[in-house]
Design a protein that fits this description.
single chain, about 650 residues, alpha+beta, Dna Ligase, domain 1, D-amino Acid Aminotransferase, Chain A, domain 1, 5 domains, 9-stranded antiparallel sheet, 40 strands, about 25% helix, binds adenosine-5'-diphosphate, binds magnesium ion, ligase, transit peptide, nucleotide-binding, metal ion binding
Length: about 650
């Protein structure tokens, strides 16, 4: 076994590999870009080497720097993770030329599967069923259109170099072909620098079922299937294993085909053979076709680990170190069911817009496996994939595993950025998905309901207001309360550009009434736990000027300083009121004085801070109603300006 390996990756997968390495007594070396100096994967590693700027081309895609880092740190092998250099055969050759071991397949095997057209031809020869279509050399638009007609519409145009759903277009009929071809080629050119395409029959109600394979360079075994049909725009969202509705016969047929594919190219290490499956009826032994092979550890490998009890990274290290396959096919079996959900920083109602931001608070629930590359305080930067974590649950049956996934998503707490938690939660609770009716069109069909923005209840606003005032903590600033008159305070919160105001009336340290618009929410502490209108309150995190209520998958509000808001005296621009109870520290105005908008007229000391009260407009001071040193209630009039001549007219 190696004593040191270098992980040529970042984020959750780098951390994932290091955890197994550590468990095996193998030292790990991290590499990092400028953007990742303080990243979790760097903190987890036994040693770390800086390799360059934040752009992938300057760091995680710079094979020469990574190899130099491995040599310098005494590593004997390089684990590529997924993405970046993991499927780059030139990198594999350079690693080997440097006398190091690449933890993965040979350059030759990667090349054989690198282009979808060549891979399909190879698989066809090996007796693996491939999707009917044209994957020849000819790229002339006229010829391709003719081929599409022969295959029969609808067809799918795919970039031969494709990945991540890029360069792929569905064409319904001959009329739309030319335009779709142009745009597929243009996208493929930009994404992969290769505009060649192939044409495939579009499978109706398709399901994506893939088989995990593992080879030692000669023979291979499979670790059953994963169903990844829950996709948005050809990108996986929730994956599961085993596939719903799978029969022993079809599993046997698909597993055998996948093993044949791996053995045909002398595959070593972990790989995935992806099949497209006709989901319009039940699964059939003649109803699946080879799509592509991913020659690396796959993002969704944890579901396979959960149902087989195999640590795939351990197997990768052992096989790369020269051991044979750790288990024979007969020794592998399925235990229960597992789901994985990909948690991203993205704004779902705004069209799944990737988001960035500092994770001010991050809690993963008990009862779920969380694979993550970030901790509370870390930044989701614009340089990389905005993935926050993968949440995986296991159960004895599909229903139990799915129930656990739903519960885990509800109990996940992220503050500081928007996330797709609500979307994932809605999927986990989707009735059709619950019944196992999965196909790649499910999300698109129900997109509106699945991506609806969360409802923000009055109780949520009330709770956020109380939290922002520090009133939820026991023994907080309000000790000594009983001596006071009931306190009234106003809180202004902002969510998605809209301001909401709440008025808090404190009756005791354990009882507050909160007005939110016309509604009144009562907050009472019973047995040490807060209740809102009698129902147990969700958890809340206050982090700086952000308060996040963990109802509806995390509802965040900015806490606005009421005194900084221009419209504070909006009700009557002639009266300057105390926005909260406090002590008038100083008054700078006297009757008859001319003031200009923005002039500081008084200072109020409240909530342990001094707040300046500014003139809301130009005018003349009519009267000063409170002197320095006086204690005032929220809403008390402090200074009145003379009627605005123009406004009065
Ligand atoms: P899976 O998600 O099942 O692993 P995909 O084909 O969706 O398979 O792509 C996964 C890998 O390819 C990931 O490692 C990801 O980092 C990388 N990848 C996917 N899409 C892109 C993209 N648009 N640009 C660069 N890398 C990508
Ligand atoms: P990528 O390399 O981008 O992952 P794939 O060839 O694996 O491309 O296809 C991605 C997704 O597109 C599949 O998971 C499936 O949802 C859909 N798809 C691919 N081929 C077909 C097909 N022939 N018919 C219907 N859907 C398909
Ligand atoms: Mg794919």
């Amino acid at each position: 076994m190696f004593d040191t390996i270098l992980i040529a990756n970042r984020g959750e997968i780098a951390c994932r590999v290091m955890e197994t390495a550590r468990a095996m007594g193998v030292r790990s070396v991290a590499v990092y870009s400028d953007a990742d100096r303080a990243a979790r994967h760097v903190a987890l590693a036994d040693a770390a080497v800086h390799i360059g700027g934040p752009a992938p081309a300057e760091s995680y895609l710079d094979g020469a720097k990574i190899i130099a880092a491995a040599l310098e740190s005494g590593a004997q092998a390089i684990h590529p993770g997924y993405g970046f250099l993991s499927e780059n055969p030139d990198f594999v050759e350079a690693v080997e030329a440097a006398g190091l071991t690449f933890i993965g397949p040979s350059a030759k095997a990667i090349r054989a599967m690198g282009l979808k057209d060549a891979a399909k031809a190879l698989m066809h020869e090996a007796g693996v069923p491939v999707v009917p279509g044209y994957h020849g050399e000819e790229q002339d638009p006229g010829v391709l259109a003719e081929k599409a007609g022969e295959i029969g519409y609808p067809v799918l145009i795919k970039a031969v170099a494709g990945g991540g759903g890029k360069g792929m277009r569905l064409v319904e009929d001959a009329k739309g072909f030319a335009e779709a071809l142009d745009s597929a080629k243009a996208e493929a050119k930009t994404a992969f620098g290769n505009e060649a395409v192939l044409i495939e029959k579009y499978i109706q109600q398709p399901r994506h079922i893939e088989v995990q394979v593992f080879g030692d360079g000669q023979s291979a075994v499979h670790l059953f299937e994963r169903d990844c049909s829950l996709q948005r725009r050809h990108q996986k969202v929730i994956e599961e294993a085993p596939a719903p509705g799978m029969t022993p016969e079809v599993r046997e047929a698909m597993g055998a085909a996948a093993v044949r594919a791996a053995e045909a190219i002398g595959y070593a290490g972990a790989g995935t053979v992806e099949f497209i499956v006709d989901g319009s009826g039940g699964l059939r032994s003649d109803g699946f076709w080879f799509m592509e092979m991913n020659t690396r550890l796959q993002v969704e490998h944890p579901v396979t680990e959960e149902i087989t009890g195999v640590d795939l990274v351990e197997w990768q290290l052992r096989v790369a170190a020269g051991e044979g396959l750790p288990k024979r096919q007969e020794e592998l079996s399925i235990d229960g069911h597992a789901f994985e959900a990909r948690l991203y920083a993205e704004d779902v109602p705004k069209g799944f817009l990737p988001a960035t931001g500092r994770l001010r608070h991050l809690v993963f629930p008990e009862g779920a496996r969380a694979d993550t590359g970030v901790r509370a305080g870390d930044e989701i930067s614009p340089h990389y994939d905005p993935m926050i974590a993968k949440l995986t649950t296991h159960g004895p049956t599909r229903a139990v595993a799915l129930q656990r996934l739903g519960a885990a998503l509800e109990a996940t707490q992220v503050a500081g950025t928007v996330t797709n938690l609500a979307f994932l939660g809605a999927l986990a609770r989707h009735e059709g998905f619950g019944r196992g009716e999965v196909d790649t069109g499910l999300i698109a069909r129900d997109l509106e309901a699945l991506s609806a923005p969360p409802e923000v209840s009055d109780a949520t606003v009330a709770l956020a207001a109380l939290a922002s005032l520090g009133l939820l903590e026991s023994g907080g600033p309000e000790t000594g309360f009983a001596l006071w008159q009931p306190l009234r305070r106003s809180v202004v919160l902002r969510r998605e550009g809209e301001e909401v105001q709440a008025k808090v009336q404190s009756l005791s340290a354990e009882a507050h009434d909160v007005e939110v618009g016309d509604a009144l929410v009562t907050a009472r502490r019973v047995g040490g736990r807060w209740q809102l209108d009698g129902a147990l309150a969700p958890e809340v995190a206050v982090t700086g000027d952000l308060v996040t209520v963990f109802a509806g998958y995390g509802i965040g509000f900015d806490i606005l300083d009421p005194l900084e808001r221009g419209e504070f005296a909006a009700g009557d621009a002639s009266v300057i009121e105390a926005p909260m109870p406090g002590m008038v520290k100083a008054v700078f105005a006297e009757a008859g004085q001319e003031v200009a908008k923005g002039d500081r007229l008084a200072v109020l000391e409240a909530m342990k801070m001094e707040h300046s009260l500014l003139a809301p407009r130009d005018g003349v001071v009519a009267e000063v109603l409170a002197g320095a040193g006086s204690q005032v209630e929220a809403g008390a009039a402090l200074i009145r300006l003379e009627e605005d001549a123009e406004a009065a007219a």
